[in-house]
Amino acid sequence: MISLSALPYENDQAMYSAHHHAALLIDLVLGRSSDNIKIHNSNSHKLLSGTGLFYEDIVSGEKHISGQQFLRLIKNAQHLYKYNDLSFRWGHTLWPGHYDSFSQLLGNCQNLYQTLQVLSEHRLRLSPLITPIITQDSRYCYIQWRDAIGLGEERKFVIESWMTGFAALCRIRSKQKLPWHFGFSHIKPKYQEQYQVNLGEQLYFDLGIDVMAIDKAYLHQNWQHETSTAYNIALRQCQQTSTGAVSFIEQVFDYIQANIRQSLTIDDVATNFNMSSATFKRKLKKHNSRFQLLQDQARLSTALYLYQCNGFNNSQVARYLNFNDMPNYRRAFKRWSGRTPNNLKQDLLMHAISPV
Amino acid sequence: MSSLLRLHLNKILLMVSLLIISIFVSLSLGEIKSWNVIDWLDVAGEGGCAIALLIWMVFILGSRPLGRVTDLLALGLGFMFLAFWQDTLDEFIQLPSSLLWNQMESIAMPLGILLLTYGLYHWHQEQLVLNYQLRKRELIFREHRAFDQLTLTGQFEYLSQQLSSHKNSGPNQSLVFLILDINNFSYFNRQFGHQEGDRLLLEMCELILLNLRQQDLICRYAGDRFAIMLPNTSLTQGRQIAAELKQAVKHFAFKVPQSSDSQFQSLSIGCVQWQIENNDSLALESTEKLLERANLALLKDKPIHLANVSDLA
Fold first, then answer.
1. Rounded Cα gap, residues B105 and B111, in angstroms
2. Is residue B202 scored above 70 in pLDDT?
3. So what's the pLDDT on residue B25?
4. Residue A93 to residue B149, Cβ atoms within 8 A
5. pLDDT at residue A107 greater than cutoff 80
6. B222/A221 touch (CB, cutoff 8 Å), yes or no
7. Minimum distance, in Å, between the CA of residue B164 and any CA atom of chain A
């Protein structure tokens, strides 16, 4: 799916329509003050401060914003809104949304699998901040949400929104509440009741990855019985306007993931991207990331995949990832996830839902 | 705060002009002391008091609407401030001791204290009236930081504090805990927008409040979920109240601008009694356990059940 020939875009390039996802967040924050034009103006000023944007830009419907501007906006929004339900409320409004033919395509998908495909394929327009990575084992389908632009401190906020949004989309389209299981890399927050109400009861924290899981039986369950004409028309329109661009951080991650069994050094990766390692480091830093961090994440998600989907034990995983001895592997695993392999496996969402 | 301060513009102007007059009178009648006679400890003490009183006045005027209580408090503090201010000036300017002006501070201070005391008494009366308006939204202790901005009820944090204080007081009375949730609220939100959704939550909360007893406490749990604590209540009574709430909400005709039809809602309610943990000890189960059972009961009460996986194949 990933072609290395596609030009990677970075987080200072204006790639996202300002009147799409970002505008929904702005509406939520400014919504309560919209009756009073004076408060509205001063709040919109505070909300957009440091983003280099004006409220008029957003309503014009033509402005594009960069990842950095988007993140700054999210940061300001949290600061201004003060309550901890903003991410969840934003999530509920995300999809199908009003993103032209892309929303029509998403809103006319026939089943969960197709919805995921569309979201991943047209992620620049539909899911700009994080990308769904889909894996399956014999019984479950897992959606790992992967950082696409270097979220840094806003990761938790965006994950909350995206998971809420995707579960809400499935609920509307399937007309039932699907039995999702939600796993988060962060520890259990104080406002756990928001997770309960907006997502559900099956919540697992401190897993090292952000993942949703569901029984595979739901993947191809038919959501609507009308013809697929609307879908096909939207599909053609989307294919005409889609760019196929992939973000820099995703390309790096994909490269590391594809070569996970080699012990890549930063120089290897920099060479592959035709950069000096100094430039490469600087670019990663701009994306709130480090090479070691990305490599650790890739190894952790590979290890978890092997445990879960292939039923590997510790020594098999260690051998797969080219660790010479077990203590070394355990120490490394602890660095990736903050927990020992056995401790994490016990808690791993996939174990919790397995029938045993 | 600034908009409230503007209401009290005349009081502020009066204050400023009094200050200026006192400076002029002191300067014209007295002589400026030489630098080495000034007692800086006195200046700091009296000047500091004057500044503190000024700050109190800003807070009081900035947080209160017009009215008698505000006038009394401001007047009392104002006189006290003038007394300290004159005291501070005296440190710099020597006034002839026979002057009546010199007596001003000894009159202003007791007068200010008298007015402030009278004002505080009325403020107390006023607060009792306000407390009555807040009943069912708060019990025993107040924590303004844990209040939900939309529904003006406590946030969940406030309720869990209430629950643990009940737990510590011992299991001598029966407590019933309700968790309620509006069915298909997300659908309503999508259909009419989140602003209408917010308005629905607010009005729904008012409606539920009307149907509660004086000793009950409601809090916003999260989203469209509310939690209600019913002290001194048996499980049967609790179920009765839950049924009454459902009835009341069922007949609540909510109007939205987008549609001429009234929008009717329904509630799901989880109703549980706080149980004794096990027979050996008399301790109540933990609040987490209580919540878990309440949320589970709520899910069971939901009209839409998950489709069974085996039905899909």
1. 10
2. yes
3. 85
4. no
5. yes
6. no
7. 16
Q: What is the band of A321 on the pLDDT scale with cuts at 50, 70, 90?
A: very high
Instruction: Cis check for the bond before B231: say yes or no (omega within 30 of 0).
Output: no
**Does the model's ipTM exceed the 0.85 cut?**
no
pLDDT digits (tens, 9 = 90+) for A214-253: 999 999 999 876 668 888 888 888 888 877 788 999 999 9
Residues of B in contact with A201 (CB under 8 A): 295-296, 299
Q: What is the dihedral of CA A343, A345, A347, A348, to 10 degrees?
A: 150
Mean pLDDT over the full length of chain A: 88
Task: Kindly report, residue by residue over A113-170, the tens digit of the pLDDT.
Answer: 999 999 999 988 999 999 999 998 888 899 999 999 999 999 999 999 999 999 999 9
Confidence (pLDDT) at A352: 52
Q: Which residues of B touch A217 (CB under 8 A)?
A: 309, 312-313
Point out the residue among A28, A172, A193 whose CB comes nearest to the CB of B221.
A193
Of A66, A84, A307, A74, the C-alpha closest to A208 is: A307
Half-sphere exposure of residue A234: CA atoms within 13 angstroms, side-chain side? 18
- Tell me the CA distances in angstroms from A191 to A198, B111, B223, one per residue in order: 12, 51, 12
Q: Which one has a higher pLDDT value, B257 or B6?
A: B257
Q: What are the phi and psi torsion angles at B148 (to 5°)?
A: -75, 130
pLDDT of B245 above 90:
yes
Q: Which of B149, B194, B309 sits opposite A89 (nearest CB)?
A: B194
Q: How does residue A1 score in pLDDT terms, banded at 50, 70 and 90? A: very low
Q: Which amino acid is at A222?
A: N
Cβ within 8 Å, pair B223-A85: yes
Look at residues B114, B130, B11, B103 and name the one whose alpha carbon lies nearest to residue B60. B11
Are the Cβ atoms of A215 and B309 closer than 8 angstroms? Answer: yes
Residues of B in contact with A171 (CB under 8 A): 186
The answer to whether the CB atoms of A193 and B156 lie below 8 A apart is yes
User: Two tokens at A186?
Assistant: 């962060």
Minimal C-alpha gap between B236 and chain A (Å): 27
Considering only CB atoms, A92 lies closest to which of B157, B186, B296, namely B186
**Which chain A residues touch B if contact means CB-CB below 8 Å?**
28, 31-32, 34, 82-83, 85, 88-89, 92-93, 168, 171-172, 176-179, 190-191, 193-194, 196-198, 201, 215, 217-218, 221
The single residue listed with the structure tokens 């209408």 is B196
pLDDT at B313: 36
Strands B267-273 and B176-182: antiparallel
**B257 has a pLDDT exceeding 50:** yes
Tell me: the pLDDT tens digits for A68-92? 999 999 999 999 988 889 999 999 9
Give the closest-approach CA distance of B40 to chain A in angstroms. Answer: 44
Checking DSSP bridges between strand A8-9 and strand A246-247, what pairing results, if any?
A: parallel
Interface test with B, best of A196, A202, A222 (most B CBs within 10 A): A196
